Each structure stands twice: as C-alpha cells, then as structure tokens.
Amino acid sequence: MGGLDSLPPGGWWLVGGLLLLALELMAPGVFLVFLGAAAIATGAFTLIFDLGMPAQLGLFAIYSVVSVLVGKRIYARPVVSEDDGTLNERSRQLIGRKVTVTRAIVDGDGRVKLGDGEWTASGDFNASEGERLIVTGVRGNRLIVERPDALPPR
Fold first, then answer.
1. Angle formed at CA 28 by CA 24 and CA 29, multiple of 5 degrees
2. What angle (nearest 5°) sits at the alpha carbon of residue 11, between those of residues 21 and 3?
3. Which region, left, alpha or beta, applies to residue 126 given φ > 0 means left and ψ of -120 to 50 means alpha?
4. How far apart, in whole angstroms, are the C-alpha atoms of residue 130 and residue 118?
5. pLDDT tens, position by position, 108-141
6. Residue 51 near residue 63 (C-beta atoms within 8 A)
7. Residues contacting 151, CB < 8 A, separation 6+
8. What Cα–Cα distance (Å) separates residue 140 from each residue in 20, 53, 69, 113, 121?
9. Rounded to the nearest 10 degrees, how much is the dihedral formed by the CA atoms of 104, 107, 111, 115?
C-alpha cells in the first residue's frame, strides 16, 4: 500500500488546495480560499494532462491571479449603494421591500415577515394572514405598510 510518496504531483496540488481552504475556515480573511481554488484547479489539470513542474507553476500563477480578481470583483460590490443616502440608515433600506402578514392587521396593528424575521406593522386598513404588502415607512421598530397596486400572492 502506497504512502504519501506515491501521491502524484496533481494530488499534492489537491492536498495543498484543501489545506488552504481549511486554513481559510480557521482564519477567515477571504483570500486563502482563492489560492486554494487555484491549487485545486492546478491539481485537477495536472492529473488530467500530466503537466511538468514549470507548467504547473505557470498554471497556478494564472489561476491565482484570475481567482483573486474574480473574488475581488464579487466581494468588492457594496451591498447598499452609497449614492442612495441610506448607507447608515438601516431602517430606510427597508422601504419598498415586500412583506407577508403573519398576524392579521386589525385596527391598524399586526405582524409581518421580512426576510427571516418578524416585525410589528401598522397600516390604515385590515389585512389577513398571508397577504402581501409593501413597506412604505418605518417608525421606531414598527414598519408602516400599504397594499401595493398589484403584488402576486405568495
């Protein structure tokens, strides 16, 4: 039975890539994951095409640069646009979002589901459970909701 000495060069790249991914989990910095992905891709190509060491190193360099640039592009996108004036006003970011009534709105008071949480909601109408509404404002920790013109049922 072969030990680690019998591991082909592509296998070493795969092991190295997995170790980089494991290190990323222990010390998250969103950088080692890209190098780990590049090492795994290099290992896969080395196993498939039996590449020599110069080709392996060149391929790893190319994959590293490409994966870091792709990762930078993905992670550099702001979740909230800085131009809309709501960057530091989280409650204003909720305006326009669609919600589902979880406790009927009676006499202007009820609860709605937004994302993975429930919020107290107010409206100038009664709404039954399951009805879809839209957030038009926020007062404290209470969402102000209205019936949209045409929102499909959930």
1. 100
2. 110
3. beta
4. 13
5. 899 999 988 899 999 989 999 999 999 999 988 8
6. no
7. 98, 132, 133, 134
8. 45, 63, 41, 17, 11
9. 100
Alpha helices in the chain (DSSP H): 9-26, 32-49, 53-76
Contacting residues for 81 by C-beta, under 8 A, at least 6 apart: 87
- Give per-residue pLDDT as tens, 57-93: 999 999 999 998 988 887 776 665 555 555 556 777 7
117-122/109-114 β-pairing: antiparallel
Question: 37 near 60, Cβ under 8 Å?
Answer: no
Of the two residues 116 and 154, the one the predictor is more confident about is 116
Residue 153's pLDDT is 56
Q: Do strands 132-139 and 98-106 pair parallel, antiparallel, or not at all (unpaired)?
A: antiparallel
